[in-house]
Amino acid sequence: MDIQLIQGVYGVAMYICTYICKSEPQGLKLAITKALDALPENSSQRKHLHTIGSVVLSHREISAQEVAYRMINLPLVESSVKTIYLNCRKPDKRHKVLKSNAERQQLDDDSEDIFQTGLPDYYSIRPKGSEWEKMSLATNHAVQINIQIIGNHVLSS
After folding, report:
1. Would residue 15 count as lying in a domain?
2. Could you say which DSSP state residue 66 is in?
């Protein structure tokens, strides 16, 4: 069982610091050296980095919780900060994404609606009203992304 009694704020800070700074196994440097020596002389830097990463991951001591998260592919870190690309080019200079083949085959032969609707399109057709008309392009993008997240039933913090 991986349980430790912690008392007070100082105890929490101390536990976190010791967990983050836990010592790596003594043989890690030796294992890295052996793995790099086993590589051919003309190996790329990418291969060297891959080898070092594999050795570190296979020799590192990790908690039971981290093992469980890695085994079922859960993210170890999440963020409430989202970054979106805000395309501010003029409409005729913007790059657009084509609809899927299935969607395009359902369209009429003379239809020109072959592109997916993007965030700038939603801004240009935003509802009328004082709140929406005062809203900047960036704020509108943030609102539209939240609407899409809620509409797709994806939970986001």
Report:
1. yes
2. H
* Domain count within the chain: 2
Token pair, residue 64, equals: 């039971």
What average pLDDT does this structure show over 44-63? 83
Outline where 1-136 has alpha helix (H). Answer: 8-20, 28-38, 45-59, 64-71, 101-105, 119-124, 130-134
DSSP state of 23: P
Residue 113's Cα: distance from chain center in Å? 31
Contacts of 118 (CB under 8 A, 6+ apart): 87, 94, 96, 97
User: Looking at the domain assignment, is residue 143 inside a domain?
Assistant: yes
Q: Is residue 130 situated within a structural domain?
A: yes
Amino acid in position 39: L
Average pLDDT of the chain is 78
pLDDT at 156 exceeding the cut of 70: no
pLDDT digit string (tens) for 101-119?
Answer: 998 888 888 888 888 887 7
**pTM of the entire predicted model:** 0.38
Tokens 């890690």 correspond to 28
Instruction: Report residue 147 as tokens.
Output: 């609407």
